[in-house]
Amino acid sequence: MAILRQPRPKTGLSKRLAALYGTRSWKAYRKQLCRRRQLCERCRERPADLVDHIVPVRSGTDWPAMLALFHDRANHQVLCRPCHDAKTAEDRKKYPETYRVK
Fold first, then answer.
1. Other CB atoms within 10 Å distance of the CB of residue 24
2. CA 47: distance to chain centroid?
3. Which of 24, 51, 52, 86 has its CA 20 to 30 A from that of 40?
């Protein structure tokens, strides 16, 4: 039996960030980047299916800084789901203040 995680409540900031990930341009960019780079940049074993922000977008000090981190292509890497989940767990420890529900 699969255990389902309850989604955290979205704050105003979370909604704004979620909206960026839902845009047609982001979805097309993600698909193109994963197709071009193909393998996960962390394990180099599994196909890449997610674009990860190397420096978390939420670590920006304000909305313009977050937008800059979101769109900075040098801040993007492609990862498989297991590596992305592991990296997110590491980011939560490294940047605890950015992952608190506000």
1. 7
2. 17
3. 24
